[in-house]
């Protein structure tokens, strides 16, 4: 007896399904995403979820792809969206947590008192998380953020890439395997200066989080929209990061010219084993 849909869409080879999914975009996180958000990632996930509900075979193919990248961006639905994801990961289907590889978060302007603690708890539930984009952490909430993302309590062991607000520097120490750190924000050089200080001293001293000790595998640090001066002596501190090969500092005026440019890896200044791009 011939199975139902033996010659239909569900009978295609797995490679063709993956090819179809590739046309809905990828989970790549770019620094440019912090300025323009077109909703394509939501469309991608909605389409993949719809395909996963077609039949058992397609569920096994498209459901993991639909959960590869999660978004928490809408201010009005941020709290409910985070609560919903926590319920899914802890109560309804914990197995889905293993599919998540990237999380994109835009913190609302007025987060609740528990937002950062819930966010830190949620990220810890994702064993295969590789990339975090976390933006719009305002100065007035820096203390609440640092308490929630204390490296002694919040460890994200597999994260390799961070694209974060310059005020979210504490997240770096929570990621012992992080290799690429990009900060976005008008900080008067605060992010780079503070991170540089951790190469010799503890991060914010009382926290005792040294980037050299807790995130020793960093190979690339970029900071966009930096509107302050960085001293050469501060730059030299980064030589303590033995794997670091690039430090890029870009102003708002040079942002569009430096992202993805062919000269991105060009050596402008060499300090021992560190190649520093000052643009």
**CATH-defined architecture:** Alpha-Beta Horseshoe
Number of domains: 1
Largest sheet features: 9 strands, mixed
* Distance from first to last alpha carbon: 68 Å
Low-confidence stretches are: 31-38, 200-209, 254-279
Helix and strand composition category: alpha/beta
β-strand number: 9
Organism: Laccaria amethystina LaAM-08-1
Protein name: F-box domain-containing protein
Task: Sum this structure up briefly.
With 279 residues, the chain is an alpha/beta fold.
Describe the protein:
This protein has 279 residues and is α/β, with parallel strands linked by helices. The chain has a single domain, classed as Alpha-Beta Horseshoe (Leucine-rich repeat, LRR (right-handed beta-alpha superhelix)). It is built from eleven helices and nine strands. It has helices at residues 14-22, 40-52, 56-66, 78-92, 115-124, 142-148, 170-173, 190-197, 211-214, 232-236, 255-258, and strands spanning 69-72, 102-106, 131-135, 161-165, 180-184, 220-224, 246-250, 269-271, 274-278. A nine-stranded mixed sheet has the order 1-2-3-4-5-6-7-9-8. Helix 2 runs antiparallel to helix 3. The longest helix has 15 residues, at 78-92. The N and C termini lie far apart (68 Å). Residues 31-38, 200-209 and 254-279 have low confidence and may be disordered.
């Amino acid at each position: 007896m011939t199975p139902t849909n033996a010659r239909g869409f569900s009978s295609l080879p797995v490679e063709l399904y993956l090819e179809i999914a590739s046309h809905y975009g990828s989970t790549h996180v770019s620094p440019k995403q912090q300025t323009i958000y077109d909703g394509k990632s939501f469309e991608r996930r909605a389409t993949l979820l719809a395909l996963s509900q077609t039949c058992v075979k397609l569920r096994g193919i498209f459901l993991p792809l639909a959960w590869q990248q999660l978004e928490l961006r809408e201010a009005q639905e941020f709290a409910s969206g985070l609560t919903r994801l926590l319920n899914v990961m802890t109560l309804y289907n914990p197995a889905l947590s293993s599919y998540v590889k990237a999380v994109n978060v835009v913190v609302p302007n007025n987060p609740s008192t528990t937002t950062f603690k819930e966010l830190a708890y949620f990220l810890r539930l994702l064993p295969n998380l590789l990339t975090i984009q976390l933006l719009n952490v305002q100065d007035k909430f820096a203390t609440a953020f640092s308490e929630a993302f204390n490296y002694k309590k919040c460890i994200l062991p597999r994260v390799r890439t961070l694209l974060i607000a310059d005020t979210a520097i504490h997240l770096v120490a929570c990621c012992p395997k992080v290799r690429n750190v990009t900060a976005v924000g008008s900080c008067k050089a605060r992010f780079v200066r503070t991170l540089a200080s951790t190469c010799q001293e503890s991060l914010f001293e009382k926290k005792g989080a040294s980037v050299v000790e807790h995130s020793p595998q960093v190979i690339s640090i970029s900071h966009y929209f930096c509107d302050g001066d960085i001293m050469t002596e501060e730059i030299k501190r980064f030589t303590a990061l033995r794997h670091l090969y690039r430090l890029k500092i870009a102003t708002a005026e040079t942002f569009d010219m430096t992202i993805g440019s062919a000269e991105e890896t060009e050596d402008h200044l060499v300090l021992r084993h560190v190649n520093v791009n000052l643009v």
